[in-house]
Each structure stands twice: as structure tokens, then as C-alpha cells.
């Protein structure tokens, strides 16, 4: 890669990739929570609409959707997205659908006993969700969200096909300009890896914080650390979660 | 409530602004039936509990005792019949002069009068002990946070856990968790406290601490208690009335002295000789 392309295209491309990742992740996160919570709603119509959204976006290709947004949408509606936002929308809506499955699953893993305790204290449905169920589901969500975030980062390479000048686009440009693919693509692979690694580190920190928020993990209180390590083997937690349900009808 | 009311000698009606005079009927089951599939758990059940009384439900497992508590807490709905709490229907409300199935809001209002302690404690693991107790008073009753915390401290003092208020539930023993759960239920100032086999999940050495707290509450407050337990000694200590259940019906009821020493019903006799 020539230094001209590196400075003029690749480095700005890295910044574009980061921007697309951050914006799409924000949108995906929003969609994941809204759709995921809607999919646990008590009204069937809400579950139906959100479930339909999930099925549609899971079943279509993010790339095709992006192409549609960039090239078909303007013809159909006479209005054009800035290419980067067409990409962000396509990625955010698609990965948001995947994320909704994580949110739904984690909410359902909160034991029925917790819901009952909330009812017994007269919390409203909304209060139970916000104060009891979501905070407990959150630590469950973080590791799969991390996976999804890495997938999303790598998925941002798709925006290069709708001529958003991200780092993949810059590598392609370098290939065309210099006829040398190897160095450009090695650099590209390495760059994705570095960004993914940084994201994983960040998400690990988020995970630790989330666990500390429900009294798990080694955070803070040093004198309980040994005690916790003994009491909180994974099996122990599972057992607690299982026996936590409601106790039959003696 | 424990810290406010002077102990009321047995037989003297204790009045407060919140509960009706002792003696008035507080809970009434009207021909309540509940089935799970083909299994009839409650069969046209009728019984009532007067305010301030401590009633213990005993009987073999599967006889519907826990179902009664869960119906009262609206965790289950009856298939037939109605439950009346402090004059209000639990599952129906009055619109004009008609009774219609109760909306969420009505159910919530009525169940504010009822508190429950569960077999498995069910503390909120995402909140420290103090917040477990203050969360509902603040967000459900709209109590100012200072007042709720002040009250939570008093309750923690009552159950002997003041020094643990900044811990997470997972950092406490089962017995401690259950005592927090008792404090949490009392923080809502319920008229009725439902106790669902509250010591069954505890290691034997932790049972006494929890029962002591409950005895204390039973003897020093005018709260109405409905208690499902296998701790017959405890039942004898605190109960005004013991109800013996079998196959979804009350087959015998009476004072603990009568029930434990000289029951009339053969099935009661059999059951008690097996558990005592």
C-alpha cells in the first residue's frame, strides 16, 4: 500500500469503520431491547408484530438489504440516504433482530420466583421489568452481546460495496492502484482483529461490572471473595436458580 | 407494625389506623375451587380469617395449603369462587352495580394489604439488603426515600441483621436471607402476612432464628398471619386457629391445644402422629 493511499484513504477508512460500528451498535442495541422486550409481552399482538420483525430481519441478508437501501430505495421513493447511513440502518436493524433474541432469552431465564416476589410487593409490570427482571437479565446478555458486536464490526465491511469509504474500501482501492493484494489485505485483517480485541476488552469490563451489580464476581468486598468462590460455583448458581421457582402447591 | 404498636394482650382488640379491629372478618374464601388439569386442588373451599388472628394451615402435601396462599397473593386465579379481603373482592371489581373481572389496578390495590414470605426467600439478587426492603415502599407506596430507609433500618434491627444491610443477598446465609424477606414483606405494612413454608428450605440450625423472629412478630403486633408450616411446635406457639386440610377441603379446625392434643378427625390424628 502506498503511503498516499494509507494516509488519504486507509486511516480515514479506519475512522469510518469505527463510526459505522458504533452507530450500528447503538441502533442494534435499541432495536434489540425494544423488540426483545416486546417479544415477551403479555399481548399476543405485540409478540406477533415483534416476532414478525425478528423473522424478517433474521431471514434476509444484511448485504442485500443494504444494497436495497442504497440503490432500490431511492428509485422507489425518490429519496436517497447518505450511503453511510444506509449501511448503518441495514446493519443496525439486522443485528438488532439477532440481539432481540438475546434479550428475550435472558429475560426468560430470570426465574419465575422473582416475578412472583415482584407481584407480592405490588410492583406494576413495568416496574418489575425495569427494577427486577432487566437488571438480573443484563449480566446474562453481555457475553452474547460481545459476540454479536464483533460480528457487527466484521459486518461493517459490507458498507464498502455501497461505496462507503471504510477501511475495506481503502484496501480495495490499494489493490486496484498498486496491483498488490497481499499487504493491503494483511493489514486489513490485522486492523479488524485489533479493533475486535479492543471491543472484547471493553465488553469484559462491562461484564465484570454487570456481575458485581448482582453481588457476583470478585468486585470490591475483599473479605467475601473466598466465601463467594466457594458458594458460587456455576452448578451452585444453577441449582439456586432452579430451586428458586415457586415451590409447588403443597 | 412491630416498632410502633404496643403489644396487645390476648383478647383485647388492638386498633390501628390500618387494620380493622381485631375480630372483624378480614379474609373470606367463598366456594373457591382450583384445578391443575384433572387434579382438583381446592374443592369449593369456604373459610374465613378474622383480623389479627394467626391461622396455621396443616395437612399432607398436595392438600392445597400453598395454593391458598398463592391465590390470596394473586399468583394464581381461582377457577371458581371469590376471595374477599377487607371487604374488597380480590378478582372482581364493582363497575356501576355490576361485578366485573378485576383489572390490574384493582388487583394491585387490594394486594397491597397482603404480604408474602416465600419458601425460597426470593430476594432480589440485584439489590443490596437495604434496597430489597426499601424498593417497594418507595416505588409502590410512594414513601420518601429517607423515611423508607429509616423504616428498613428499624425492621432490620427487628430481625437482627442491621450489620448486613449493605450486602447482597447472595452474601447471606439462607436464614439471614429469609429474615430479610420477612422485613421486606413487613415494610409494605400489610394487614396480612402469608408465610409459605418459610423454613423448609433452611438448614436445620438456621430454622430457630427465623421462627424466633416470626414469634416475636406474632406476639407483639396485630398483623394477621396465614401460615403454612411443617414446624408443629411453632404452629402451636403462635396459632389462634389450626386448619387441617385434606384433598382440597378443611376437614377439621380448632385451637392448637385441641388440634394437637385431642383432634376429632381420624385423618387429622393420623397426620399429626406421623409428623409430631
* Spatial extent as radius of gyration of chain A: 22 Å
Average pLDDT taken over every residue of chain A = 85
Which strand order do you get reading across the main beta sheet of chain B? 8-9-10-3-11-12
Q: Helical element count of chain A?
A: 10
Classify the fold: give the CATH topology of chain A: MetI-like fold
From the helix content, strand content and strand pairing of chain B, which structural class follows? alpha/beta
Query: What global shape of chain A is seen?
Result: flat
| Percent of residues in β-strands of chain B | 25-35%
Number of domains of chain A: 1
Helix content of chain B: 25-40%
Cα-to-Cα separation, first versus last residue of chain A:
74 Å
Q: Please outline the major beta sheet of chain A.
A: none
**What ranges of chain B have pLDDT less than 50 throughout 5 or more consecutive residues?**
1-20
CATH superfamily of the domain at 51-74 and 109-275 in chain B: P-loop containing nucleotide triphosphate hydrolases
Write the layout of secondary structure elements.
The complex is a heterodimer of chains A (250) and B (276).
Chain A: H1 3-38, H2 44-59, H3 62-77, H4 83-109, H5 112-120, H6 125-155, H7 167-178, H8 181-212, H9 225-231, H10 234-243
Chain B: E1 25-36, E2 39-50, E3 54-58, H1 65-72, E4 80-85, E5 88-89, E6 92-95, E7 98-101, H2 104-111, E8 114-117, H3 129-139, H4 145-158, H5 174-187, E9 192-196, H6 204-220, E10 224-228, H7 232-238, E11 241-246, E12 249-254, H8 256-261, H9 266-275
Parallel strand pairs in B: 3-10, 3-11, 8-9, 9-10
Antiparallel strand pairs in B: 1-2, 1-4, 4-5, 6-7, 11-12
Describe the structure.
The complex is a heterodimer of chains A (250) and B (276). Chain A has a single domain, classed as Orthogonal Bundle (MetI-like fold), CATH 1.10.3720.10. Helices cover 78% and strands 0% of the residues of chain A. Chain A has helices at 3-38, 44-59, 62-77, 83-109, 112-120, 125-155, 167-178, 181-212, 225-231, 234-243. The longest helix of chain A is centred in the N-terminal third of the chain and has 36 residues, at 3-38. Mean pLDDT of chain A is 85; it is low at 218-250. Helix content of chain B is 34%, strand content 26%. Chain B contains nine helices and twelve strands. Chain B has helices at 65-72, 104-111, 129-139, 145-158, 174-187, 204-220, 232-238, 256-261, 266-275, and strands spanning 25-36, 39-50, 54-58, 80-85, 88-89, 92-95, 98-101, 114-117, 192-196, 224-228, 241-246, 249-254. In chain B, strand 11 (241-246) and strand 12 form a beta hairpin. The interface between A and B is large, with 34 and 46 residues.
